[in-house]
Amino acid sequence: MIVTERHNNGVALITLDRPAARNALSFALLEALREALHAAEDARCVVLAANGPAFSAGHDLRELTAARAEADGGRAFYARTMALCSQVMQRVVNHPVPVIAAVEGIATAAGCQLVASCDLAVATPQSRFCTPGVDIALFCSTPAVAVARAIPRKAAMEMLLTGRWVHAEEARALGLINRIAEDARAEALTLAGSIAARSAVTVRMGKRGFNAQCGLPLAEAYDAASAVMVENMMAADAEEGIGAFLGKRAPVWQDR
Fold this sequence. Notes:
This is Enoyl-CoA hydratase domain-containing protein 3, mitochondrial. May play a role in fatty acid biosynthesis and insulin sensitivity. The protein has 256 residues and is of the alpha/beta class. It is 50% helix and 15% strand. It contains eleven helices and ten strands. It has helices at residues 27-39, 61-66, 75-93, 110-117, 141-150, 153-162, 168-174, 184-196, 200-214, 218-233, 236-247, and strands at 2-6, 11-16, 45-50, 54-56, 99-103, 106-108, 120-123, 128-130, 166-167, 179-180. It has a six-stranded mixed β-sheet with strand order 1-2-3-5-7-10, sandwiched between helices. A four-stranded mixed β-sheet has the order 4-6-8-9. α5 (141-150) packs antiparallel against α6. The longest helix has 19 residues, at 75-93. The chain is globular and about 65 Å long. The two termini are 35 Å apart.
C-alpha cells in the first residue's frame, strides 16, 4: 500500500502503491501515508510518488458508499475519514522537511489536494488535475482548502465549480506545480537531492518560518520572519556558510 525507500543523500521516497484502485485514498492508505510521513521526519527531503497510471484519484468512493449500510448511514465513518485526510494534508504542510510531489498521470479531488499540499510538485506533460466532486454532487470542499492556497482564488473556484481538467502547462502557469518533465519521479528526486545538499537545519528552519509568516498580516509577518533570521544567524551552519562564501570555498555543513 505504501513503499518507502531511503536514498544515500538523505532523500526519502514515499510511493503510493495501490495502482489497481488508481491510488484512491482509502482509510487504510491514509493511515499508512500518515505513518510513512512520520517515519520520514529525520530525512533531508521527501518525494511523494505513486505507482500505476494515476497519482491518486482521490477518496475511495467504493469504501465511502459501503459505509452507507451502517446504522448511521455512514456519518461516523465519513467524519473519521475526513478528519484523517485533513490530518495527513496538514502533516505534509507541517512536515519538518520539504515534500515534493512527483505526479505521473492524473491527480483528482483529494489526490489534487495532496499535490496542492506539497511544498513543490513536478508533473509529466501528460499529467492532468481536477476537482470533479461537483459532477457527482459531492463538492470538493476539503480539496478546496489546499487548492485555494496553491493557486489564485478565481482559478480555484473555476476548478471547483466546473470540475474541468487542468493540463500540466496550465497547472504550472497557475502555480499548482513547479516543473514539467518526461520522468517526473526522476526530476523530483533530482530536485530533492539539490535541497538535501543544503544545510538541513537551515532548510527546516526556513520551511517552518515561511509557513508561519504566510498566514500573518504584513507587519506581523516581518516580525516573525525577522525572528527566524536572527535564529538562523545564530546557527553554526550560517556562520560556516557565510565564512565559506567570503573565503571563496565550499561550505562543510554541520546541520546545526
